[in-house]
């Protein structure tokens, strides 16, 4: 399929409309060329045609793969499939009593267009989370961005103090889609968040 | 002039044919016609329930692997090697799975295996593959013990270096479901049921623990037997418990009947389950009673993965049975990991297939551990336990008779 494109005008030439199809739109040069062409001996004309067409075919072969590659651009990926979060650590340990903590993350976008993110919540209804200094931020592919998320305790009732697999709710937006996505963490973030929750809701137990 | 036109037409026609042929070779990756040369056939085993209970998702595994093998052969991914699939039906029975594992490892052309579906079946197969030093990659097992040992919550230890999986674990699935149920669905009282199987009981236990941790209450627990059809007494218990959510650890076969009988009895609470329920058969069997029910499933929706588009088209065009939605693409990636490992073994052996099958199997295990490629489901790689590093999950809910993704999540557990 990729190789048939360059020779399409040839089919039209059989109907005597090759000049129109190729797009030579100035009548004077055409007329002069036609006169000169007619004046050439038949063998010369045949040889010239063959040389011209061989060059055309060769050009077609060379251009065909490039044409194939640029046929259909890949659609932008869904933002949740290319965005990753990595926990870096607390900005500073919470003081006692503390009702908010700040945590650092590295956010990367693997490929595609830039992704704009907004942190909308954390593991529990008793927690509020937002990125600082602005609630939404944009990450470009190949350029990881370090951001700070502030998590504050709005109420302790029913709040689990040991945060197993805590998560951040994030809205992701690129040119393909807007998605709500949870980024779930273990290890260090789980420990650091638990420390904040204990400090905020059970300060005497720690 | 007319003679010139004849020559011109001939030359261009020849050129057109030449170019068309070039295009065909590009599209087909060299084609798969008769040029077999001294090609060697290697076998990849598949074990899954291919008939009876769980077979909807089991067949999705078989044909996901089949498409991967067909693609590898068509594209001559490993020059000089033709791959063949050997699919065996374990009927979701551990003893049958073990027997199938013995059959696969006894085949001296076999280099690896994909499957099984059920974690309980996997437990009986792992030792067989370990003894043969043959790689086994499950696209569906989610029980944490399989990769991290019995004490996975306190002291992770990998039991078998030959076992891998492209599915994430129930530690994540149970937690994700509990968080969604409590925080998003605002459910506070849950009735937890499991099917006593390794997968179902393990998942239900993790869900119950996590639901309590996030602030919810487990009002009652109960167990059912696989194959049961009448859940009248269970429905009565649920009705009297005052639960606002039913969580079920198990497969779609039983849960579809439970939700139908529950709703028929006037108990209008949603049933929430794991990836074992994520099948079109669940909705078909339960009918309108399934509306509003939920599952967590591994990975993100296939239709958001550009690389999976061709896979889905091929699956449908071939008219394959079963449901590719839950594990089909993961089976494709598991199979491809084995094929790429064989390629690495061949490349390291001056382009020849190692003549000693045991040496080849051993190298394939090592190479699968080193996997690092973009599959249909995203990056395919394994951690030190043999678990996938691609830890994504989706919550689906039945809306107007179809599974619809309502929440997705990605875990970074380090």
TrEMBL record, chain A:
Region of interest: Disordered: 1-36
Top-rank taxon, per record: Bacteria
Stretches with biased composition (Basic and acidic residues): 16-36
This protein's name: Tat pathway signal sequence domain protein
């Amino acid at each position: 399929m990729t190789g048939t494109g360059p020779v399409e005008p040839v089919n039209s030439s059989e109907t005597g409309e090759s000049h129109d199809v190729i797009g030579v739109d100035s009548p004077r040069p055409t007329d002069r060329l036609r006169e000169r062409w007619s004046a050439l001996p038949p063998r010369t004309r045949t040889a010239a045609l063959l040389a011209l067409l061989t060059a055309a075919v060769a050009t077609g072969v060379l251009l065909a793969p490039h044409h194939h590659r640029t046929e259909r651009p890949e659609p932008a990926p869904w933002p949740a499939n290319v965005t990753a979060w990595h926990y870096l650590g607390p900005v500073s340990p919470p003081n006692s009593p503390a009702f908010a903590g700040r945590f650092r993350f590295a956010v990367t976008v693997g490929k595609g267009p830039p992704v704009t993110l907004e942190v909308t919540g954390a593991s529990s209804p008793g927690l509020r989370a937002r990125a600082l200094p602005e609630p939404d931020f944009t990450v470009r592919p190949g350029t990881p961005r370090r951001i700070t998320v502030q998590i504050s305790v709005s109420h302790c009732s029913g709040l689990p103090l040991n945060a197993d697999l805590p998560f951040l709710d994030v809205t992701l937006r690129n040119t393909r889609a807007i998605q709500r996505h949870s980024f779930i963490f273990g290890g260090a973030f789980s420990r650091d968040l638990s420390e904040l929750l204990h400090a905020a809701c059970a300060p005497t137990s720690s | 002039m007319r003679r010139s036109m004849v020559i011109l037409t001939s030359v261009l026609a020849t050129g057109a044919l030449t170019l068309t042929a070039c295009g065909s070779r590009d599209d087909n990756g060299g084609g798969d016609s008769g040029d077999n040369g001294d090609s060697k056939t290697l076998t990849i085993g598949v074990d899954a329930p291919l008939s009876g209970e769980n077979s909807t998702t089991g067949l999705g595994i078989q044909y996901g692997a089949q498409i991967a093998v067909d693609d590898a052969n068509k594209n001559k991914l490993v020059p000089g090697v033709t791959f063949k699939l050997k699919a065996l039906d374990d009927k979701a029975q551990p003893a049958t799975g073990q027997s199938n594992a013995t059959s696969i490892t006894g085949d001296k052309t076999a280099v690896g295996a994909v499957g099984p579906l059920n974690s309980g079946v996997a437990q009986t197969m792992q030792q067989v593959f370990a003894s043969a030093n043959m790689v086994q990659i499950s696209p569906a097992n989610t029980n944490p013990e399989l990769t991290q040992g019995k004490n996975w919550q306190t002291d992770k230890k990998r039991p078998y270096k030959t076992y891998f999986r492209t599915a994430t674990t129930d530690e994540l699935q149970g937690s994700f479901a509990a968080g969604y149920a409590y925080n998003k669905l605002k459910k506070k009282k849950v009735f937890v049921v499991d099917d006593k199987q390794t997968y179902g009981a393990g998942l239900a236990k993790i869900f119950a623990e996590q639901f309590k941790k996030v602030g919810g209450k487990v009002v009652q627990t109960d167990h059912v037997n696989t194959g049961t059809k009448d859940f009248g007494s269970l429905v009565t218990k649920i009705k009297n418990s005052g639960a606002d959510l039913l969580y079920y650890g198990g497969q779609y076969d039983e849960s579809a009947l439970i939700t139908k009988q529950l709703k028929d009895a006037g108990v209008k609470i949603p049933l929430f389950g794991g990836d074992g329920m994520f099948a079109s058969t669940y909705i078909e069997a339960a009918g309108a009673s399934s509306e509003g029910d939920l599952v967590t499933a591994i990975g993100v929706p296939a239709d958001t993965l550009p690389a999976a588009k061709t896979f889905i088209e091929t699956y449908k065009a071939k008219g394959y049975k079963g449901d590719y939605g839950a594990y089909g693409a993961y089976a494709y990636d598991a199979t491809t990991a084995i094929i790429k490992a064989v390629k690495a073994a061949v490349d390291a052996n001056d382009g020849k297939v190692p003549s000693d099958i045991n040496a080849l199997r051993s190298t394939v295990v090592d190479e699968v551990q080193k996997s690092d490629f973009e599959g249909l489901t995203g990056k395919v790689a394994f951690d030190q336990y043999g678990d996938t590093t691609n830890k994504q999950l989706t919550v689906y809910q039945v809306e107007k008779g179809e599974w619809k993704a309502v929440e997705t999540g990605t875990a970074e557990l380090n």
